[in-house]
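#structure-requests
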Amino acid sequence: MSRFFSSRFSELKPYIPGVQPSDPTGFTKLNTNESPFAPSEKALAYAAQNVRPANLYCDTDAKQLCALFAQTVGVEADEVIAGNGSDEILNFAFMAFCGEGCPAVFPDITYGFYPVLASLNGIKQVIIPLEDDLSINVDKYMDVSGTLFIANPNAPTGIALPPSEIEKLAAAKPDSVIVVDEAYVDFGAQSCIPLTKKYSNVLVVQTFSKSRSMAGSRLGFAIGNKELINDLNTIKYSTNPYNVNSYTQALGAGTLLDRDYTEKCCAAIIQNREYTVEGLKKLGFELTDSSANFVFAKHPECGGKELLDKLAERKILVRHFGTARIKDYLRITIGSKDQMDVLLDALAEIITDKA
């Protein structure tokens, strides 16, 4: 770092994204939980016809997009806010609902951006260990003060909590905001959006990067009562009022108008996930019960880093985390069936050679 870098950030450890080859041609890319499917043709056509001229600023409120999204998820337009990916929305939440005397509370194994956002904003962190089976035990959060951040399904485990467990927290902790990060909810879990109608302290965050094939366009939303959304808008208009560009707004609207395509893609990914789980188990892998567009798997005879490297030699990219509790696991994105066959064939070869 330079001598000009603020001492406030001298200990900051940035988030490390998954490998993104400059030219992905030739790679089987299963490391960043992207959709294997392009946006729908209807969504692309809608975006081309309805995008705001590029010489004009985008609509700061994303009115049409937010209205469509609100209608889709069954809330009012003033109960949602759009962001430049869900990561921006999460940062707004850290800024708005944490601070002096109000730490950020989250599991020891979860989305890696949470500790980064807490550190970036100078927020104390309270870390709650997962159970031995890598599940979240909400009872451990009952007597902890602060704003809770719960990825549901959790990442990288893929394990989902039923909304009834989140509701236990919301009811027992009315003075704590419960942020439910539902990046992967469309692949088999239940959304907590209905809880936002019942509890003023529940904020749900979703993304278009996974189930809606818009990872590169950066679009996310938060859903909550209008007071919480007003809080987030205060942060937004104090940092980045033009946060969702015009093309993303148009493509997001077009995607929402083609719900059948989204549902078809999600169904295919779920089917491919089950196919992959079956194939991995036949190879001797142990897996968590994933409700996401990825699986979390380990093999009793091959370490996670070893498998990562051997797959990379074959131009197959998966994700490995060095954290002690999960160092033997790989997080494997669910892609097309052809991609999963490439992965399974390579793993079979690697494990056979190891024997």
